[in-house]
């Protein structure tokens, strides 16, 4: 029997691939460290990772920061980063995820303006923090603006309000 014709076993990703993955996670970690506080609050981070990010922000030494970013990369390897990546994509105006998210918000706005009380009920059922009265007022104002052919100020306010609830 000739052993050379057998298929070699798959041992997993190569050492080079593991290193590329590690560097990619470190880059995401660096992005999180340099991110403004308001944006960072939108992430659902594991406690250890969040503490490491705040610690990295306090470090002044370049070498210490570099080592700490490696540590953040290690924490990210053992964490589920799908939520982190999705949130980053929602913030990146060039990403497909952001465009889909934005289109979904625009659909909600149009549905609320044209759909009456049933659309407001559907939105409130999906977003429990929504203020029904505020939605109704913005809906009325947007409809009035459309009838009078004025600029869509209320429509923009409605979109902004929907966006604040969806984040």
Give the N-terminus to C-terminus distance in angstroms.
62 Å
Number of domains: 2
CATH topology of the largest domain: Diphtheria Toxin Repressor, domain 2
Indicate the CATH architecture of the largest domain.
Answer: Orthogonal Bundle
Broad CATH class of the largest domain: Mainly Alpha
Show unreliable segments.
Answer: none
> How many individual β-strands?
0
CATH level 4 superfamily of the largest domain = PSPTO4464-like domains
Integer average pLDDT: 84
Number of helices: 8
From the spread of the alpha carbons, the general shape counts as elongated
**Helical residue percent?**
over 70%
H and E order: HHHHHHHH
Largest sheet: none
Q: C-alpha Rg, in Å?
A: 24 Å
Structural class: mainly alpha
* β-strand amount: under 5%
Family: Belongs to the DarP family.
Subcellular location: Cytoplasm
Keywords: Cytoplasm, Ribosome biogenesis, RNA-binding, rRNA-binding
Protein name: Dual-action ribosomal maturation protein DarP
